[in-house]
């Protein structure tokens, strides 16, 4: 009987050796035997492209593999892993890898949410795989379930905490008594937030992930620019304390919904009832709920960031791509056949909790309630504290209404003579 030929090793090029890349390299090098058995061929790490090869690195990284010549590394690779981040040169390198016939794996949600379709189209034309499980919620398997496991179902809603840094910051504001700046500094010290925390704090990172999830869930192209985005910069310690007093936690949520009219995708801080599972997501963890007609509610929970958890998702994708190289076949293509209309941000339906300081005079509550009612918005609860120095604090929670009606209501309430200040307006979700 002929002895089977040992499978040819697959040349793997790694672009980036930072937080994620270091752990990807470690897994490829330390788990080579298991990965070869699972992939059907040895995965040979051909090189690791970095900006500065002379920088000190983790002891697990063989210096001989480091190169500053990413272009040469990509040429001739079977699988290219991109964990550099940023738009360029990541996009150009991925395109050249695809055109050269390599399968690609990326964790770069910023690039995918801005220009994913160019990469998907190129991969389709070249007949190669593009995988990106790590781009949304780190270690949590969410891209594959939405793209593949739910391909036979009708997803109605995706709701989640997809940014670990802001979840940590809000958690510290609630439990550690820190203000926003103090909590961000702490997140930086712990390595969650970057030196420039803008992408996390202002919701860009969550918006990119929301765009990717919405595109997959609704078979419709959604880019980062289509996502209504509001970060946590305006959240005060007072908001967080009031949230707790009214039985809520403040969370930065990504919400993608499909209604009869179209698709709405938004990222904003919201009050979540304390008994809702999302309120229990602490620290830098992530959680995503998916509601589908057939499957019903599904929940995915785990570490949304960090080198090792993210590398787990990346290497899983590498094994999938490698199996296709060895056995034939190809992963799913971009699916945009539904091309649902994208709804404007003010079409979303939500509830508001409004805190306002008013003159403590007879009839003021009725006046405020009258203006709210005139805009077709219904009040669910009212709570009053004070008075202090002739001013009372009102906390109104509305029933669900269109964002446009709620915004018009707030604008009108603001003009009422007894209203001293609208202290905060937060959406209530879950
Ligand atoms: P880092 O900043 O830690 O690492 C980036 C790496 O890429 C570094 O090794 C850097 O080289 C290299 N690099 C950057 N630009 C170039 C360039 N022009 N040419 C060659 N090499 C370059 O990033 P992370 O590891 O944190 O993130 C990587 C990707 O993974 C990003 O897309 C990010 O969004 C995504 N991601 C990150 C997660 C996390 O928890 N960190 C979680 C999920 C996804 P050098 O070392 O020489 O500076
Ligand atoms: N900065 C992101 C977060 C990790 O805090 O969740 C990368 O997706």
UniProtKB/TrEMBL annotation:
- List the cofactors: a metal cation
Catalysed reaction(s) here are: L-homoserine + NAD(+) = L-aspartate 4-semialdehyde + NADH + H(+); L-homoserine + NADP(+) = L-aspartate 4-semialdehyde + NADPH + H(+)
Relate the protein's function as given in its record.
Answer: Catalyzes the conversion of L-aspartate-beta-semialdehyde (L-Asa) to L-homoserine (L-Hse), the third step in the biosynthesis of threonine and methionine from aspartate.
Q: In which pathway does it act?
A: Amino-acid biosynthesis; L-threonine biosynthesis; L-threonine from L-aspartate: step 3/5; Amino-acid biosynthesis; L-methionine biosynthesis via de novo pathway; L-homoserine from L-aspartate: step 3/3
Q: Can you say what this protein is called?
A: Homoserine dehydrogenase
Does the record bear Transmembrane helix in its keywords?
no
> Where along the chain is NADP(+) bound?
15-22
Q: Under which EC number(s) is this enzyme classified?
A: 1.1.1.3
User: Keywords in UniProt for this one?
Assistant: Amino-acid biosynthesis, Methionine biosynthesis, NADP, Oxidoreductase, Sodium, Threonine biosynthesis
Q: Which InterPro entries match?
A: ACT-like_dom_sf, ACT_dom, Asp/hSer_DH_NAD-bd, HDH, HDH_cat, HDH_CS, NAD(P)-bd_dom_sf
Q: Which CDD domains match?
A: ACT_HSDH-Hom
- Summarize where NADPH binds, as residue positions: 109
| Family matches, as PROSITE patterns | ACT (PS51671), HOMOSER_DHGENASE (PS01042)
- Check the record and name the Gene3D superfamilies matching this protein: 3.30.70.260, Dihydrodipicolinate Reductase, domain 2, NAD(P)-binding Rossmann-like Domain
GO annotations under biological process?
A: methionine biosynthetic process; threonine biosynthetic process
Residues bound to L-homoserine are 194
> Is the keyword Amino-acid biosynthesis assigned to this protein?
yes
**Membrane-crossing segments per the record:** none
Residues in the active site? 209
Q: Which family does it belong to?
A: Belongs to the homoserine dehydrogenase family.
The record places domain ACT at 353-430
């Amino acid at each position: 009987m002929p002895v089977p030929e040992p499978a040819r090793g697959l040349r793997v090029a790694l672009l980036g050796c930072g937080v994620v890349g270091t752990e990807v390299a470690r897994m490829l090098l330390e788990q080579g035997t298991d990965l070869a058995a699972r992939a059907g061929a040895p995965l040979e790490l051909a090189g690791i492209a970095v900006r500065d090869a002379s920088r000190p690195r983790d002891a697990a990284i063989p210096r001989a593999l480091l190169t500053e010549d990413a272009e040469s590394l990509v040429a001739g690779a079977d699988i290219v892993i991109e964990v550099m981040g940023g738009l360029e040169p990541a996009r150009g390198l991925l395109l050249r890898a695809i055109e050269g016939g390599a399968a690609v794996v990326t964790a770069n949600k910023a690039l995918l949410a801005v220009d994913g379709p160019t990469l998907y189209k190129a991969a389709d034309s070249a007949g190669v795989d593009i995988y990106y499980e790590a781009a949304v919620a780190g270690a949590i398997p969410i891209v594959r379930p939405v793209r593949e496991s739910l391909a036979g179902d009708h997803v109605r809603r995706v709701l989640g905490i997809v940014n670990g840094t802001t979840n940590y910051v809000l958690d510290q504001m609630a439990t550690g008594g820190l203000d926003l700046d103090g909590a961000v500094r702490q997140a930086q010290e712990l390595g969650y937030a970057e030196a420039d925390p803008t992408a996390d704090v202002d919701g860009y990172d969550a918006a990119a992930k929301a765009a990717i999830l919405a595109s997959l869930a609704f078979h419709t192209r959604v880019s980062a620019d289509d996502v209504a985005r509001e970060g946590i910069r305006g959240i005060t310690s007072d908001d967080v304390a009031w949230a707790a007093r009214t039985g809520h936690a403040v969370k930065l949520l990504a919400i993608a919904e499909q209604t009869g009219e179209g698709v709405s995708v938004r990222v904003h801080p919201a009050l979540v009832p304390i008994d809702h599972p999302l309120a229990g997501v602490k620290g830098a963890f992530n959680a995503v709920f998916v509601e589908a007609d057939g499957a019903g509610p599904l929940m995915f929970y785990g570490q949304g960031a960090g080198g090792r958890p993210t590398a787990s998702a990346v290497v899983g994708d590498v094994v999938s791509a490698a199996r296709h190289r060895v056995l034939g076949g190809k992963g799913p293509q971009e699916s945009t056949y539904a091309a649902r209309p994208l709804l404007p941000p003010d079409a979303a339906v939500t509830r508001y909790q409004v805190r306002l300081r008013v003159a403590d005079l007879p009839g003021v509550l009725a006046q405020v309630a009258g203006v709210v009612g005139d805009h077709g918005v219904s009040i669910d609860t009212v709570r009053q504290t004070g008075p202090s120095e002739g001013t009372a604090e009102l906390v109104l929670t509305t029933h669900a209404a269109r964002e446009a009606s709620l915004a018009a209501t707030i604008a009108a309430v603001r003009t009422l003579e007894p209203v001293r200040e609208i202290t905060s307006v937060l959406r209530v979700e879950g």
